[in-house]
Amino acid sequence: MKKKSGLFQLFAYTFLSLFAIMNIVPLFWMVVNSFKKEQEYAANPFSLPTDFQFSNYVEAWKVANMDVYFFNSILVTLVSLIVTVLLGALAAYFLSRFQFKLRGLTYSLFLLGMLVPIHATLIPIFLIMQKLHLIDTYFSLILPYTAFHLSLTVFILEGFMRGFPKDLEESGVVDGAGIYRIFWSIILPITRPALATVIILNFIYNWNEYLFALVLITSSELKTLPLGLANFVGIETASLTLQMAALTIALIPIIIFYLLLQKQLVAGMTAGAVKG
Amino acid sequence: MQTLKGTKLAIFFGLFPALLIYLGIAIVPIGLSLYYSVMNWNGIGSMTFVGIDNYVQILSNSTFWLSVKNNVIIMVTGLIGQLPLGLLLAILLNRGLKGSGFFRTIGFMPVVISSVMVSLIWGMIYNTEYGMLNNLLGFIGLEGWQQNWLGDVKWSMLSISIAYIWQNCGLYMVIFLAALQNIPDEVNEAAELDGATGFKRTMRITIPMIRSTIMVCVVYSISNSFRVFDLIQILTGGGPAHQTEVMTIYMYNSAFMNMRYGYGSAVSILILLFSLVVITLINRLAGEKDA
């Protein structure tokens, strides 16, 4: 394994570098130009900015209502995430640690959700939300986000909890702890690694969601970041550098999030596939 | 655990909230879609039963078949663009080269960025007047190659496909990489002793070893190709003249632009059916090879 031909290394590095460049250049180009005056960009889109226009950022933040969108995204993302993980962990606990008649059916039902494209449910969900007068409220997003991510959450947590030794709960039973007490004080703490993965995945999925928001949210005070950005770029066609500044503002937190937590994020996104 | 008192009730209360939300919002709507699909309804007036009328209309609509064709293009893009590229990258990254971690980090980055952001960025790249691509072509003296990348029928699907590869390739790369790292060292060492090295080992040993992961990715890639919406909705909106429309956009337009909820629901049922049929077919074909 140790000896590698120089030719192979040359090929590998060239190929990997080209790939990395393809991934970086679009983002780099956008960030660099977000600091330019519109005229400077028009004159030469490939030069580095001569003096940095931080005013683009100030203006983009204001004109694009970034504060509102960030607030909405954080709120909807976190509430859905907390509800999904709590309910999902509880369901996973009962599915993994107890034998009961409908266990198999319930588990299969939860897994089914990973196969269903949300598009097949979009119209009924819109109509249900309309009937419940929930259109254009945070709830209209929190409910679908929770429902659709329960599948993966239950799948990952159930698999993890099932791996615990059978006699884990015994000490709790001896001490007279109830089922929920055992869940909260014994099971949840040792599920922490899987919980971390699930929380990160849910965060990313909720944070990036677009289609439900597009259909269920109309008022601009309730728009989430992806929806707000898409709208802003659609309207603010005059200034490309302003658009780039707005996109960079939205890009930076997610890149930082990714760089800090990439291990769990990659693990979560590949978990289902590799297990097969 | 069965000895605990009140177990049944506890199980019920533990599962009930999750099941209620899940069934109510994710499962029941599929049934409702099926129900609406045989109705004619504009959302305001009364609903009338029309049987398979919606389906007949959809299947005889040329725009719908255009969207099916585009879905096939996206599917093929995934299968021959993203998967082999992802596999090749994973194989290279698995060779323990210096800097592998860096390339993996960069490679996976587009997967994490929202598809809205990816679309907006690529929209700026493809912009006819101010975009990076045309600017670059002008910059290096290839003005003749400049195109209206998204607005020209000849180029629009290709442009979308490239953005689609860019967005998802990294996902398959890390999935394959995880599978490769699961191959026990002994297997590689044994192969080495038998004289299988480099390319030969990759083709004869490595790829067969991760066959099940490759199959999962094929299925995953196909089902994802039927779900593509954000990318195209934002890049072109399905235009010019429906030329980049996919089934999800056709459904969205039918239901939410033209207020034909029954018709749109029938499209969504067809999306579900199409993807199930293709996936079953692929599984069948792969299964036969095994035998």
UniProtKB/TrEMBL annotation, chain A:
Keywords: Cell membrane, Membrane, Transmembrane, Transmembrane helix, Transport. It is a multi-pass membrane protein. Pfam families: BPD_transp_1. Gene3D superfamilies: MetI-like. GO terms for biological process: transmembrane transport. The keyword Transmembrane applies. Residues 70-261 form the ABC transmembrane type-1 domain. It is found in: Cell membrane. The chain crosses the membrane at residues 7-32, 69-95, 107-129, 141-161, 182-205, 240-261. It comes from the Bacteria. PROSITE patterns: ABC_TM1. Its main location: membrane. GO terms for cellular component: plasma membrane. PANTHER family: ABC TRANSPORTER PERMEASE PROTEIN MG189-RELATED, ABC TRANSPORTER PERMEASE PROTEIN MG189-RELATED-RELATED. Belongs to the binding-protein-dependent transport system permease family. This is Carbohydrate ABC transporter permease.
UniProtKB/TrEMBL annotation, chain B:
The keyword Membrane applies. Residues 68-282 form the ABC transmembrane type-1 domain. Keywords: Cell membrane, Membrane, Transmembrane, Transmembrane helix, Transport. The keyword Transcription does not apply. One of its GO terms (biological process) is transmembrane transport. PROSITE patterns: ABC_TM1 (PS50928). InterPro entries: ABC_transporter_permease, MetI-like, MetI-like_sf. GO terms for cellular component: plasma membrane. It is found in: Cell membrane. The chain crosses the membrane at residues 12-36, 72-93, 105-125, 155-180, 205-223, 261-282. It comes from the Bacteria. It is a multi-pass membrane protein. Belongs to the binding-protein-dependent transport system permease family. This is Sugar ABC transporter permease. It comes from Paenibacillus lutimineralis.
